[in-house]
Amino acid sequence: MIELKNVHFSYQEDRAESVSGINLQIKPGEFVLLCGRSGCGKTTVTRLLNGLIPHFYEGTLHGEAFIDGKSIRDMKLHQLARLVGSVFQDPRSQFFTVDTTSEIAFSCENMGVPRVEMLRRLTHTVTAMKLEPLLERSLFKLSSGEKQKIAIASVHAAGPTVYVLDEPSANLDHQATEELRQVLALLKSAGHTVIIAEHRLYYLKDLVDKVVYMEGGTVAAEYDRQSFMAMSDNERIDKGLRCIFPEKLSLQCSGKDSAVPPACLQLEDAAFWYEGGPRILDGLCLMAGQGEIIGITGLNGAGKSTFAKILCGLVSERQGKICIGSRPAKAGERLKKSYFVMQDADYQLFTESVEEELGLGNERLPNLAELVTETMETLGLSTFKDRHPASLSGGQKQRVTIAVAIVKGADILIFDEPTSGLDAENMRRVASLLQQVASQGKTVFVITHDYEFIVHTCTRIVNLADGRVGADFFLNSSSLAELKKLFCFTD
């Protein structure tokens, strides 16, 4: 039994409470979903359950958290690690070695498990999770989904009874998400307690036993699976929750049926490879016009992020030609005329406040203060304008980097997984803002695995497969079936 009794917590750098008066009971073997808007306190609850609060994150804690009748506050982290395993949104943040086999065994080594027992656990984990193809591989060469599998396997080998996961699907393609679902189903069938904080709900609909909806740092409601699945679309939208049945969504932003608008950007036979490595992109041909919002899709490892880096000039193509307008544009020129919002928001946050972040490097823009204020209001960031960006939640940071891109006003905007960590309400805000930007004649590229975001936002789809354009079509009612096929959805 896991129990939170009237728990209040505020982080050291924040006067406001992140969670307030939390009361929660989780039975052994339950599969529990924590959901709610970005910043509602989901991650804080996971940290209370795995002991990172108060043993790692400092702040003011009132109330008690118990596991098997023992106070988590009184337990050492190494004691908790034998009971509770944690899997974070970015698996790289919990890797300690450089190859997969060593990483799976690391948790056992760290706990001093005898070698014979460690090898038994390693074999059991690899067999149960069907990881044989991933053994003896470099962690640096794995896809996002493969990294997530190894992170879960390392926890599994440690032998905990409770698994706590924080948005594990945020950076995964549909295939990797399905594989994650299968791993979670395996944990549930083995009788483990699973607590997962998520925005993307559809892949969990057949697994959850209880849904805990959080709002403003409190538990606002609890549902069993049946009542949660029966929730109306309007109620779900009012709560800021993502869709449960994405295959039933209709298009909210329809593309054109005619030819591509006059080209402002053109790739001709573009290719790229790292020195001594295989071709990541090969023979890439693409024309993009002003006002388009082009969704770049494809499985993890298809070359999407490399494609984005070439577009914006962070790396130079090895062969081929890239033109802006009617003339070739070298990497340096593309860098000046484009802006790339990376998947990891922390890499692009530099100042002491959100308001300063939006103004950084834009001091010469006319009406800067007005533009910053308007963009913060549109993306729901005004409340945080004086906050240090590092103190924000993952979804809030993501919105800040998107806001910076909008203020920059580049002609070509490229977003890499812009909805990672965003709830439904903020996903729609971002969709609306990108549509506004495109209407001003900008060309927008969105690298995304988020089907729900695509049907709300994109006018065209370019699917990459093995470094080439595998599909390229305008998004409209007649092509929706083709989009569903790419995501392996059926009605």
TL;DR of this structure?
33% of the residues lie in helices and 25% in strands. With 491 residues, the protein is an alpha/beta fold.
Question: Can you describe this structure?
Answer:
33% of the residues lie in helices and 25% in strands. The radius of gyration is 23 Å and the shape is globular. A hairpin with a 2-residue loop joins strand 9 and strand 10 (218-224). The protein has 2 domains: 2-246, P-loop containing nucleotide triphosphate hydrolases (Rossmann fold); 263-486, P-loop containing nucleotide triphosphate hydrolases (Rossmann fold, 3-Layer(aba) Sandwich), CATH 3.40.50. The chain has 491 residues and is of the alpha/beta class. It has helices at 42-50, 52-55, 77-81, 100-110, 115-128, 144-158, 174-189, 225-229, 233-238, 304-311, 331-337, 354-359, 368-378, 394-408, 424-439, 451-457, 480-486; strands at residues 2-11, 19-26, 31-36, 59-67, 70-71, 84-87, 162-166, 193-197, 210-215, 218-224, 263-273, 279-289, 293-297, 319-324, 327-328, 338-341, 412-416, 443-447, 460-465, 468-474. It starts with a strand and ends in a 5-residue tail after the last helix.
Strand order across the biggest sheet? Answer: 6-7-8-3-9-10
Q: Output the CATH class name of the largest domain.
A: Alpha Beta
How many strand segments? 20
Largest sheet: 6 strands, mixed
Distance between the termini: 39 Å
By CATH, the superfamily of the largest domain comes out as P-loop containing nucleotide triphosphate hydrolases
Percentage of β-strand residues: 25-35%
Q: What count of domains describes the coordinates?
A: 2
Net shape:
globular
**Percentage of residues assigned to helices:** 25-40%
